Records
---
Amino acid sequence: MDNSILEMRGITKEFPGVKALNNVSFKVARGEIHCLVGENGAGKSTLMKVLSGVYPHGSYSGDILFDGQVQHFKGIADSERVGIAIIYQELALVPDMPVFENIFLGNENRKGWLINWNETIRRASAMLDKVGLKVNPATLVRDLSVGKQQLIEIAKALSRDVKLLILDEPTAALNEIESDNLLELLRGLRNQGVTCILISHKLKEVMAVADKVTVLRDGQTIVTLDATKGELTEGVMIKHMVGREIENIYPPRAHTPRNEIVLQVDHWTAHDPALGRDVVKDAHFKVRKGEIVGFAGLMGSGRTELAHSIFGNPDGYRLQGELTVKGEKRALSQPEQAIKAGIAYVSEDRKGDGLILIQDVKQNISIANLRELAARGVLNANAEIKVANEYKGSMNIKTPSVEQKVGNLSGGNQQKVSLAKWLFVKPNVLILDEPTRGIDVGAKFEIYSLMSKLVQQGMSIILISSELPEVLGMSDRVYVVAAGRIAGELPISEATQERVMQLATN
Amino acid sequence: MFLQNLQKQLRQNIREYGMYIALFVIMAIFAATTEGIFVSPRNLSNLIDQTGYIAVLAVGMTLVIVIRHIDLSVGFLAGFLGAISAIMLVQWGLPTFLVVPLVMGLGVIAGLITALPVAALKIPSFVASLAGMLIYRGLLLLVTEKTGTIIIPDETFNALGNGFIPDLPHFLPVGEKTHLLTLLLGFVAIVLFVLSQINDRKQKQAYNFEVLPTNLFVLKLAFVALLIGGVSMVLAAWSGISWTLVIVLVVVAVYYFITTQTVLGRHIYAVGGNPEAAELSGINVKRIIFVVFGSMGMLSALAGILFTARLRSATTTAGTLFELDAIAAAYIGGVSAAGGVGKVIGSIIGALVMLSLTSGMNLMGIGIAYQYVVRGLVLVAAVIFDVTTRNRGR
Ligand SMILES: Nc1ncnc2c1ncn2[C@@H]1O[C@H](COP(=O)(O)OP(=O)(O)OP(=O)(O)O)[C@@H](O)[C@H]1O
Ligand SMILES: [Mg+2]
C-alpha cells in the first residue's frame, strides 16, 4: 500500500472530433500540492472533470482509484461524498444570492427542516476570514469583482469536509497579493492534511507551492516532476509543455510611439447609479498612435469601469468630462458608436460578456464586424468561414473546426477567439482587459508578439492587466489606477514594481 | 460506406430530423386510424389552412423566445385586429387591399408599444405582454359589443382564409379536376431548389469546405423533390394552392432568409445568446427588442386577418389561446427557453404537429378532453427529446 490518495489509470476521453485525453495516468500522494500544467487545450480541465464526475463513469475509459478504492462517479454529488471538491475555471456562483448563501449552497446548515441562518452567517464569516476576504457576508455575489468571487468559491469548497481540493486556475483572476494569500492558504491546508491539485499557467506560483508537477501535452501525460528532488525549474516545465524551449517571454521592443494623440480623456468621472458612487474619479490620460499604454492597479481599482465608460458606456454610468478621439470631442453613448469611432474593447470576462458560448467560433469572430462580410445586409457565409479560418490559423486557435461551439473550447482558446473577434474589427485603439488571463506561456508570447506587430502598424493599445510584469514588459507608459483615480503616470524607464505598487496601494 | 455516411449524418442532425420524423409518424398513425381520410387531399388542404394563422404566429414567437422574451398578447391582439379589419371592411367600406396593410401597420404599432416598457424600463416581457393580453381582450369585447359577431360579405377578403389561387387553362393533358398551375408551381419549386442546392455546393467546394458526399447529396435532393412533388400533387387533386398557403410560404421565406442570411438575423441570435456580449459587440439590444416585437405585432395582425377571413366573420372570442398554441409550436420546433436557439422552419413543423393532432383526433372522433391531454403529452415529449439530444452534444 503506497501513500497515494488518488490514482487515475489509462484515462481516455473523446469529444466529437477531439481526443481530449489519450491514455492519461496521474498519481497524487496524500497531503501534497500537486500542480497540473500544460498548454491551452492540453486536457487539464477535462481530466479534472472526469475525476469529479462531471463526465460520469462510462463516458470515458480508464480507472479512478481514490482512497484505495475504485470509484464510479455518476455525478458531482458522488465525488463530493467521498471528499473531493472542485473549483472550476468557470465560476459557479449564483450572482443574485448573498455571499453566505452561496457558500453553503447545497450544504445548508439545517435546523430540522429549516435553515439555521444565524449559524450560516457565523460560519460564513469564519470561512471568509480563512480565505482572507473582507466583505460583508450579506453582499450579493453580483456586486463583487471576479477576484473576490474566486475567493468565495474557495470558501465554499472549504466549508465542506474536503480531502482533495482541486483548483482550476484559481489565481487567473487574482492580483499578486490575493494570489500570495491563496498560496499561503493552500500551504496551510496541506499542513492540515488536505491534498490539493492546482492547475495554473503562472509558472512562478507553481514553482512556489508545488511538491510535484505533472505536465500534460495534447491529451497525454508527459512527465511528473518532483520538487523535493530538485527536478523543478521553469525552463524544464516550459520545455515539456510546449515541446521546445522558449527563451524570452516578451518580444524585443521594435516600435516607437508617434506624437499624434489618438485618444484623450479629461476630467472624466463616471457615476454608477446602481452602486450610488463614482467608479471613476476625475481621470486624465492620453494615448498616442502606435503606443502601448499600460493601466496597472489592484483588482477592483476601477480600470474595467474606466474602459467601459469610454467604450460607449454600456453600464449606463452618468458621465462627466471630455473624451477626444482623433482630435474630435465625442460623446459615445453606445458601444456601437465607440466601435465606429475606432475603439475596440476585449472584455476581461470572456464568459460573462465577451463571448456567446452557444454560438460557434466563426459566429463569435464575426459578430462585431458583420457589415464587412455583408452586402446590403445579406451575409456572405462562405467569406465568414474563410475569415474565421484565417484567424484560427494565425492565432493558433485549437479547435477541430470553426463550426465548433465556443463553449466547448478550452479556456485559453476561448480567450484567443475573443481577441480574434476584436482584431477583425480593425480598430485604431484596442483596449485589452486582462488579455492573457488563463493563457499558456507559448500563447502569451504569441499574443505579445501580435501586440507588438499591431502597434508597429500604427494601432494604439491600452493594456489593462493585473500582472505587473506583463504591464512593465509591454508598455511604453504606465498609468497606475487606485480607487477610481489615476494615481500616477510613469514613463516605462521609471516604472518599477515597487513604484507601481506604492502608487496602487496608496 | 454509403450507409455509414447516412448514419453519421442522421446521428449528427438527429435533433433537426427528429421533428420531421415525428410529424411523419403522427401523420402515418392518423392515416392508418382514419382509413386514409386524414391524408386525403381535401383534409390535407384543410389542415394547411387551419395551421396557417398559428404558423404565422409561431414564426414571430420563435424570434421573441430566441431573444429571451415572451409575448402573451398575440392571441387577443390577433382577435382584436381581426375585428378591426371586419369593421374597416363592413362599416367603413374600405377595400381589402387597403385593409390588410393598414391592419398590419396597426399590428406593428401594437408590438412596438409592448416593446417600449420592456426595452426602456427592463420590465419583464411576461408582465408587459400579459397586460397587453388583458387590454386587447377588453378592446375586442368593446368593439364587438354592440354588433356581436360581424359577418364579412367581402369575398376578396374571405378568400385569404378560404380561397385558392386561380388555375390556368388546361393546355397540358391533366385530369379535368386537377389544378394545373399548382402542379407547374410544384415543378418550378423543385427545379429552383435543385439549382440553388447545386450552386451552394459549388460555392462551398470553391472555398474548399466540407460538403455532403455525392450520393447523400443526390439522396437529399431526391427526397425533397419527392416531398414537394407529392404535396403539390395532393393539393392539385383538391382545389390547388390556397391563398393561406401562399401567405404562409411568403412569411416563412422572408423570415427564413432574415434569420439565416442577414446581419439583422445574426444580431437577433446574438442578443438571445448573450445580451451583454451582444451589447459590447456594438449591437443595439434595445433596437433588436423593438424590431422583434414589432415583427411579432405585424404577424399577429396577419394571423388575425387569416383567422377572420377563414371564419368570414369577427367574433367576440377570436384569438383565445392562440398565443399558447404558438408558444407550444415554437417549443416543439426546438426553440430553447434559455435563448439564442430556435429555427423558423422548426416552428412551422411544430405548428403542423399541433394542428395534425387536433385534426386527426377530430377525424377519429376523440373527445376534446382527451385531445388536450394528448397535445400536452406530445408537447412535453417533444421538449424532452429536444433537451436530451441537445445535451448529448453534436
Ligand atoms: N464539451 C466539449 N466538447 C468538445 N470538445 C471539448 C469539450 N470540452 C473540452 N473539449 C476539447 O478538449 C480539449 C481539452 O480541453 P481542456 O478544457 O481540458 O483544456 P485545458 O488543458 O483545460 O486548457 P486551458 O488551459 O485552455 O484551460 C480541447 O481541445 C477542447 O477543445
Ligand atoms: Mg482549462
---
Amino acid sequence: MSKIRDRSIDIGTYCPQPDDQLIICRCEEITKGEIRQAIYDGMHTLTELRRFLRTGMGPCQGQSCSKIIQGILARELKISHLELEPAMSRAPMRPIEMSVLGNEVKGGE
Amino acid sequence: MTFERAGAVMKRYDVIVVGAGPAGLTASIEAAKNGLKVVVFDENAKPGGQLFKQIHKFFGSKEHKAKMRGFKIGDELLKTASEVGVEVVLNATVIGIFPDKEVTVNIEDQLIHYKGDAIIVATGATENMVTFEGWTLPGVIGAGAAQTMMNLHSVKPGNKVLMLGSGNVGLVVSYQLLQAGCEVVAVIDAAPRIGGYGVHASKVTRCGVPFYLSHTIIKAEGDTRVTGVTVGEVDGNWQIIEGTQKYFEADTICLAVGLSPMSQLLKMAGCTMEQDPKKGGLVPVCNQYGETSISGIFVAGDVSGIEEASSAMIEGKISGIAAAYSLGYIDEESLVTKAKVLEASLRSLRQGMFAPENRGKILDKTEEGYDISMNLLKRGYLTEEEVESYPGVKSKKGIHPVIECSQNIPCNPCQDACSKKCILIGEKITSLPVVDKEATCTGCGMCVAACSGQSIFLVDESQEEGYTYITIPYEFLPLPKKGDIGLALNRSGSEVGQAEVVKVKTAKAYDHTHLLTIKVPTELGLKVRFFKQLQEVLV
Ligand SMILES: Cc1cc2nc3c(=O)[nH]c(=O)nc-3n(C[C@H](O)[C@H](O)[C@H](O)COP(=O)(O)OP(=O)(O)OC[C@H]3O[C@@H](n4cnc5c(N)ncnc54)[C@H](O)[C@@H]3O)c2cc1C
Ligand code: SF4
Ligand code: SF4
C-alpha cells in the first residue's frame, strides 16, 4: 500500500468501453463509465473517487462496491490493486439517523 | 472505577468485544473465565454470527467441535458465555472506536459511549460481489444471504438457482438449497478447478447438479427480475471463448465469490493495516496473540483473515487470554502455556491440501502419495476406478465401510466414530482415512452419520443373492419409507437404475443424518451413491 501517488504519470485519455453503463455502486447508482471518467479527470485514489462521486457513501457504506472500484481504479492506473490505499474509515460505521447521532449518552447512566 | 469526562460518567468494562460470532463469543468466554468484566455488542438480533446459519456438520477434530452442526456450536457457546457472566448486548451496532478505547454504540435511538481497558474486534466478514450485465436485477443475491433466508427465516430464496463460485461456501450453500427444495441448475466457477473440499462437491454432484469450471456469467436475463442466466467459458486471460455460451433458466443467481474482512473499525481506530490477498483483503497487522499495533486492541476471526469458524474460535480464545494478560489478570507464564496449546490446535487445522500456504498451488499427489483425482477437481466426483485406489475403499465380505474421502483435509470424526477401530486416520488429522480390513464392522452406521463430508457408505453384498445393500447418509425431507422404489443415481448424479429402500434408520446419535439402506443389483453396488425419490421426480 503506498500512501503517495505520482500524479505526473500520464494515464492517457478516457475512452468509452462497452460495459460503461454497468452500475457499480448500487446505493448511489454510479456507473462504471462515470468512475472511469472521474479517474481520467484526476481522481486517483479511492478517497477522491468517493468524495467526487459518492461511491460507497450510501446505505451499504461500500460493502459491495469498494473492492470492485478498487479493481477498476487499479486497471486504469495500470497498477496492482494492492498498491491502493483503501478509502478513509470514519465513524459512524453504519448509516445512522441524525436524531440518533445527536442523542449521545454516556453508558451506565 | 469510573471515568470522568466532560462531567459525565462512562460505563467501563475490562474488555469490550465487538461481534458475537464464534470468535467474539470464545474471546469473551476466555476473558470472563479469567476474571475480566466483559461485554459483547452485536448488531444482529441473534447472537452467533455466521454459526446460526450453518446447519451442516463441521470438519476438524473433537477439540474443534467437529461433526457438530454450526448452530449447535453457537448454542453451546452462548450457554457458556452466560454461565461465566459475559454480558451479551444485541441490536447494538458499534459505530466507532476512538482514542483511549472509547467505543460508541448505537442501541435503539441512542448513541452510547463506553470505555474499555481492552477491545477485541471480531466483526467477521462481508461477501464479495462481481459485476455482469444485469447484476443489479432482483434475484441476484449473495450465497450468505441465501443461507440467511433459508436457515434463519425459513424462506426459500428461489426455485431455480444458479450458483457462481465453487469454494466451500458455494458448495455448502448449493447443498442447503437442494435441502430447502430448490433446484440448483448449475455451479459455475471461472477457475479451472473446484475450489472447495472434494467431499462437499461430491455430495452436490451426486444429487444431479452439474459443474461448469472455467465458466463465468455473461448476463443475467430478465426485465424486472432474473429469468435466466447466460454463461460462457473463459480462456486463460479470462475472456469469453466465442461459441461457448450456454443459457440456463433460473430465477435466482447466488454469488459465492469470497469474503472480505470487515476491518473498517480497526482502520478507524488507527491500527496499522495491510493488504493481504491470502487473508482476503485489508487486515490489521497483529502479533501471534492477535494484538494490533495499538496495545490493548485485539482481533480474532474472519476480520483478521478469512478462515473458518473452527479457527475463529481458537483465535478468539487466544485473544481473550492475551487481553487478560495485558490487563494483568494472568501472568506471562500462564499466557505462554495456554497459547502454546491453542497455537498447536490452530496449526493442525491449517494443514493439508487447503492450507493457506497451498492456496493457488496445483497438487497432484496426496501427502501419502496417492494420485489426486482431477475428475473430482473438474467435475465434482471420483470415477469408479479412482475410488478404488484410495485406502478407505477395500472390498470385503459382509457389511463394511467404503470411504470416498480422497483429499488431505483437516477432519477426523470418522476415526472417533468407529468403536470397532475399522477406520484409522492417525495423529495427523489431515491424513486420508484408512479402512482396516481385519477389524470387524458391525454395521452400526456411526461413521456414516459422523462424516461431515457425507463420504462414507456401508456396502453389504452378503444379504441377498444378486443384490448389494448400500447404506447412504440422507438429509432430505420427506424421508423415504421402507419398500419405496426410487431412482438409483451414481456419483455423477446420473440415473443408473432402480433401487428399493430396505431400511431407514434414525437415531439421536446420528444427529439428524438419516441412514438409508437401499438395495441394487450387485453390478451396480460400486456405482450407486444416491437415492432419488420418485414423487420428487414427478413434481
Ligand atoms: C456458507 C458458509 C459455510 C461455512 N462452513 C464452515 C464450516 O463447515 N466449518 C467452519 O469452521 N467454518 C465454516 N464457515 C466459516 C465461518 O462461518 C466463519 O469463518 C466464522 O463464522 C467467522 O467467525 P467470526 O466470529 O470471525 O465472524 P462472524 O461469524 O461473521 O461474526 C461476526 C459478528 O460480528 C457482528 N458485527 C459486525 N460488525 C459489527 C459492528 N460494527 N457492531 C456490532 N456487531 C458487529 C456481526 O453481526 C456478527 O454477528 C462457513 C461460512 C459460510 C459463509
Ligand atoms: S458401521 Fe460402525 S462398526 Fe462399521 S465402520 Fe462404521 S462405525 Fe465402524
Ligand atoms: S471420511 Fe472422515 S476425514 Fe473424510 S470427510 Fe468424512 S469424517 Fe472427514
